[in-house]
Description:
The chain has helices at residues 2-21, 52-58; strands at residues 25-26, 30-31, 35-37, 47-49, 59-61, 79-85, 89-102, 107-124, 127-133, 139-144. The chain is an alpha+beta fold. It has one domain (24-144). The strands form three sheets. Strands 1-7-8-10 form a four-stranded mixed beta sheet, with no helix packed on it. Strand 7 (89-102) and strand 8 (107-124) form a beta hairpin. The longest helix has 20 residues, at 2-21. It is globular, with a radius of gyration of 20 Å. The termini are far apart.
Amino acid sequence: MKKMRKSVISLLLGGLLLTACGTSGNVPYTEAQHYFVRNDVKEPPMGKIESQEQLERSFGMAPVMGPGGLPTEIDFSREYVIAVSTAPTSRATELKVESLRREGNDRVVLRYRVEQGEERSYTIQPCLLLVVEGSKADRVELQRVE
Length: 146
């Protein structure tokens, strides 16, 4: 009876271990609010950002009055940012997340789409910043979906 109990416990623990190692699946994220692409940035910033200094090279903070008006706080000691942006445009433009998935042990894939609307009388530079809890070893891949 003891051997059978040990076997069952070993199987359960082994199953849990395999489940923990199977790292494919959705990755939770927070969409950062109240940031903008700086007007002195030449190329649209894209990809993984691992430090506050790196973030500040491409993005500025835009706090607004009222509740929830402060830029999203980012703790780069345990989080990183995935940045997606487009060239400046005069069309209404939204960047939308299709999925953010872990594929393998160190690969994170962001699938996103760009939705454009009517022409505007002013120019914007759309951006999307996702705050992800994860490892600096994570490789980020961006895939635009049409």
